[in-house]
Design goal:
Length: 115
């Protein structure tokens, strides 16, 4: 639906982030894998967060083309009771814990690889 307009908008912002973190060259090498991951995320969001049904709604070209159907992730359910019953502080704490762990991993990687 948004097509080229969204691609232009998203692409410009993604490029700015990649340039800021100096990862443009890494991104270029991983583009096919990142695109596949993004499509699985989209299929998972459609399954769990939208009132979409294959019986009553048109197919999404990017997810539903014969021969290249993208299934949602089978390892997560965004509507699970466990997720629904979490307090916002639990989400915050989990986010911060993961954020700090990733930051330490990036710092360690940088020390080992960016000399």
């Amino acid at each position: 639906m948004l097509g080229a307009a969204w691609a232009d908008y998203e692409g410009a912002h993604a490029l700015a982030v990649r340039k800021h973190f100096r990862i443009n060259h890494i991104f270029a090498g991983c583009r096919p894998a990142l695109h596949a991951i993004d499509l699985v995320a989209l299929a998972t969001e459609r399954r769990d967060l939208m009132a979409w049904s294959a019986d009553t709604h048109p197919a999404w070209e990017v997810l539903d083309m014969p021969g290249r159907v993208v299934p949602p992730a089978d390892w997560i359910n965004l509507q699970s009771l466990k997720r629904e019953h979490k307090d916002w502080t639990e989400w915050r704490d989990e986010f911060l814990e993961r954020y700090h762990a990733l930051g330490m991993a990036v710092e360690q990687w940088s020390k080992e690889n960016m000399q």
